[in-house]
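Question (not urgent): is this output format expected?
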Amino acid sequence: MNYRLRLHIIFWIAYILFESYLEFAWISSSYASVPPFDRWLMALYGEATLCIVKIPLSYFIVYLLNNLSVKIRNAFVSLSISVIAFAVAIAIYRLLVIYLILPYMYHEKTGPQFLFTLDRITSSFLDLVFIVGVVVAVKQYRLSQAAKENEKQLVKDKLESELKFLRTQMNPHFLFNTLNNIYALARKRSEDTADVVMRLSKLLRFMLYESGSNTITIADELRVLNDYLELEKIRYSDRLTILFTKSVDNEAQPIAPLILLPFVDNAFKHGASESRFDSFVHINVQLKQGQLVFTVENSKDENGATEIRENIGLKNVRRQLELMYPEHTLAVENERNSFKILLTINLLNHATI
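Got this back:
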């Protein structure tokens, strides 16, 4: 028995018990001579019998509202069908009451003269309208909840697609920068070329097999940063001062993969590589109780009018931060001789995508 069928069965059992209790209270004064348990059984059997009409009518009206109405595309025809359905249901309802429930369950003598009196038709109609209204309301609520869940899933799928696209953009961009470094070393016939290729293969292995996960540990992210810095040290040799400091209280703290690397890449491509004197890149990582503070500062030529430039990777990582970390701040300081980025992230509040 599937989950939905169980829910429907539970709903109707609960409804029958509820109506039986109301009927039991209603007939208690009229059938005071009947033992309470027998009165309860009379009410229970009567209400269960009436569900022969109520259950099909309720599902038919729900089907009419949610399926047939869309196909018919005519409000008048839909209303006419509903009126006919209620008329048939009321007729069967009255027949059950007069020829089955009253004589065999309540042990009352009755006749056809009570079949379609106005007060009894009105009472039957209100009883049917109540349960049909409840069923329709429950159905509409479930449809609205399903629509909300579907909308959430569509938004989630869209964000996942966007995030994957951003990462696929960033990885080739980083590779392009590194290949430029290898090309420069190869032209100089540097002995470090082989070492650079080996380190690059390690980074590519990480990007291909590990960066596809939603999160990695902060230790893995810092290891990638360190490997990248080693590449740059080989490239720049003594022409650049690189300082990498870190203070991490939990190396297993999850973080989005490659979320920090574009800032470091940007410092070298648009900072150190364009500085002629006293070039430096200073990186500091602090993690305490899930709060990350990440700073990258690099030298640049003295030019106060220089606009802040962002490569593809840096633009993409801004968008990734918006998608994945609602609680983050990113401050950029463009001074005459330096360019500094200060990023703070609450890693404990990670958006589920």
